[in-house]
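Running this now, will post back.
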Amino acid sequence: MEAITRFIENNFGLSFLIAVLFVAAVLSGIVWLTIWCIKVISKNKELDKKITNLPCSDHKESIGKHAGKLDDIATSLGKIQGQVELLVKLSTASPTKPLIYATSDYSEKHSPRKLNENGIDLYMKVKGKSFLSENETFLLEEIAKLNPKTALDVENFSLAVLRGNSDKDIFNPLKDWVYTAPIQTIKKADGSTMQKDVSLDDVLFVLSIPLRDTYLEKHPELKII
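Update: finished.
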């Protein structure tokens, strides 16, 4: 290399030699920079390919299983939350009264329980059909939160949902009716009559029976054939 530079210097001059060395350095730098860029681009392409293929086949199935479990956990937590909220409402709304009537002046006592003449009369007076129709979606969703397993569960939960949510504004017309209603004449099973002051619990019980039937119509798998 030294002999070559001396030859160029002796025959072409020092300026030419410097120019040659400069060009050589520039060309070497361009070649090095080109090689470096090619390597970087190749690595980026490999990284993009790996990212595009994520998750890999080995982990995709495992991730899918865990995602399904998380969905199940979220569903279960939602049901538990609904049950806890209802129990809290019931414990504060009317703690001294039983949740479910053993017997009622407004229903026949055989199972499945049905409204008797008194119950049908009260149902019509409080415009129960309109109330249940206007609030059907909300009430049925509240029952579903409790995850009933049998028709009896639906019957019990229907009354529980009505009582547990009776603090909501949608129940105000029913409360106004109870507040202004005169004493009702009730027909007893033996044919005699009695006078009774209707309570909100009486009204909610009467509403719970057709609400139960509506839920069971939409969930025939719970019906007893």
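The beta strands are 107-108, 114-115, 184-187, 193-196. More later if anyone needs it.
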